[in-house]
Amino acid sequence: MEIPKYIDTIPKSDKIYRLLWRITSLFLFKPFSLPIFNGWRIFLLKIFGAKIGNHCVIHASIELPSPKNLTLGSYSALAPQVKLHFGKTIIGNKVTVSQRTYLCSATHETTSINTPFVSGTIVIKDFAWIAAEAFIMSNVTIGEGAIVGARAAVFKDVDDWTIVGGNPAKFIKKRIIYDNQ
Fold first, then answer.
1. DSSP code for 93
2. Under a CB-based contact definition with an 8 Å cutoff, are residues 82 and 130 in contact?
3. What's residue 181's pLDDT?
4. Which of 4, 25, 117, 163 has its CA 20 to 30 A from that of 48?
5. Beta strands 51-52 and 106-108, pairing class
6. DSSP per-residue string spanning 33-92
7. At residue 173, does pLDDT exceed 80?
8. How far lies 71's CA from each of 7, 54, 176, in Å?
9. What is the CATH number of domain 12-173?
10. Contact, 120 vs 88, CB < 8 A?
11. End-to-end Cα spacing for the chain
12. Record's PANTHER family (predicted)?
């Protein structure tokens, strides 16, 4: 069987955009890691197309190859060493994405021998919490108020106000809120 030629499906304009962001990030984003520079980091992300709400916290050590694909609601946080992929990531209000979480919003087409790149979307709704080192796969929605446990691997949608954990992530229990603080 002859090995087919790889077909690159990523537009050249997107590659140039990501290169410009990578250079900017290297010199103007990552070195400014102190909390007082949070506004500066958000400003840079917005220049590169990110949609970010008010009162967010974004650590300098995040890996974000394409800021234009990030939407982040108000009072949300991306903790240290969070990794985002090339696809769209839509995060609601009052969401915490904890340290070393991987939001894998893109994948490859498995029905082709060339396995071309396929961009997807991850949606994390309001009041959710993604605990440390979790993995969220492309085209998954994390429901409102849901909690994804530490080191969980999520490949399917998570219902509102539930807690999941494990690999693959499974339902643990309903999340019940006793107060509004």
1. T
2. no
3. 66
4. 117
5. unpaired
6. -SGGGHHHHHHHHHHTT-EE-TT-EE-TT-B-S-GGGEEE-TT-EE-TT-EE-SSEEEE-
7. yes
8. 29, 12, 27
9. 2.160.10.10
10. yes
11. 63
12. ACETYLTRANSFERASE, ACETYLTRANSFERASE RV3034C-RELATED
